[in-house]
Amino acid sequence: MTTKVKKGDMDDFEAKVLEGMKRANRKLVEAAAANNESLIIGEIDGSFKAVPAKELLKTLPAK
């Protein structure tokens, strides 16, 4: 049995997943910042670096 998914339903689902990922990311960074930890982030060129979570928190959009 195959279920057809409407475009609008996928758009809603995609928006909900992205919102959940943003919230989870903020929660992770806030927890790391509270413990004076650093997080590893990837760069566009494929390299990576450690960044203090407090600095990373400043770059995130407001809640």
Description:
The chain has helices at residues 7-34, 53-59; strands at residues 38-42, 48-52. The chain has one domain. The radius of gyration is 16 Å and the shape is elongated. The chain is an alpha+beta fold and 63 residues long. It has two helices and two strands; from the N terminus they run αββα. A two-stranded antiparallel ribbon has the order 1-2. Helix 1 (7-34) packs antiparallel against helix 2 (53-59). Helix content is 56%, strand content 16%. The relative contact order is 0.14.
Poorly predicted segments? none
Q: SSE order in H/E notation?
A: HEEH
Helix content: 55-70%
Count, helices: 2
| Largest sheet features | 2 strands, antiparallel
* Average of the residue pLDDT scores: 92
User: What structural category arises from helix and sheet content?
Assistant: alpha+beta
**Total number of domains:** 1
Strand content: 15-25%
From the N-terminal CA to the C-terminal CA, the straight-line distance is 41 Å
Query: Could you give the order of strands across the largest sheet?
Result: 1-2
Specify the oligomeric state.
single chain
* Structure summary, number of beta strands: 2
From the spread of the alpha carbons, the general shape counts as elongated
What is the gyration radius calculated from CA atoms?
A: 16 Å
